[in-house]
Amino acid sequence: MGLSSSDVKWLFDKLSKFDFLSYHSEDELARLVLSIKKSAVPAGTVILRQGQKGPALYLILHGTVTVWAEHPQGRKHLAELSEGEYFGEVSILTGEICNASVVAESEVELFALLPDELRKEVKANPVLAEKMADAIAKRSGVRALGLEPSPVSSTHLLDNIRSFLGLAA
């Protein structure tokens, strides 16, 4: 599904407000927006599966998804995400498997930023790795809910991102 002019405007507005992209120039954001793909996902679809590598960073245009994790005590609901929220960034930036599953609760329209495009952006703008590591660390602390002994540190994430992408420290 191609991007309409209203999709481009919406994406530009949302992405420019993300902590880790707020310092990007309009040209850099425009380049990023033009690399994004749009898709519709039926209710009940597993978009990301715990234990597998994620295929993209997703941004929700319409609809709701839930985030679930299996752990020794059973299945745990971690979060509900809706319009303007994103998921899938850890796996495509670090190469790690997803630590939770994401399921479409309703029909969902998603924008997907594919790994190669995000990696190109991080390599072109290394400070983005630091900003994303900070954002991921904050999100993991909020969502941890006992799944990890302590929230992931942004320094550890940054090291993983740099290592995976072949960036100098």
Task: Explain what you see.
This protein is an alpha+beta fold. It has one domain: Sandwich (Jelly Rolls), CATH 2.60.120.10. The chain contains 6 helices and 8 strands. The chain has helices at residues 5-17, 26-34, 89-94, 115-124, 127-143, 154-165, and strands at residues 37-41, 46-48, 57-62, 65-71, 74-81, 86-87, 101-104, 108-113. The strands form 2 sheets. It has a 4-stranded antiparallel sheet with strand order 1-8-3-6. A 4-stranded antiparallel sheet has the order 2-7-4-5, with no helix packed on it. Helix 1 (5-17) crosses helix 2 and helix 5 packs across helix 6. The protein is globular and about 40 Å long. The protein starts with a helix and ends with a helix.
Question: How does the SSE layout of this entry go?
Answer:
Layout: H1 5-17, H2 26-34, E1 37-41, E2 46-48, E3 57-62, E4 65-71, E5 74-81, E6 86-87, H3 89-94, E7 101-104, E8 108-113, H4 115-124, H5 127-143, H6 154-165
Antiparallel strand pairs: 1-8, 2-7, 3-6, 3-8, 4-5, 4-7
Helix pairs in contact: 1-2, 5-6
Could you give a quick summary of the protein structure above?
By secondary structure, this protein is an alpha+beta fold. It has six helices and eight strands; from the N terminus they run H-H-E-E-E-E-E-E-H-E-E-H-H-H.
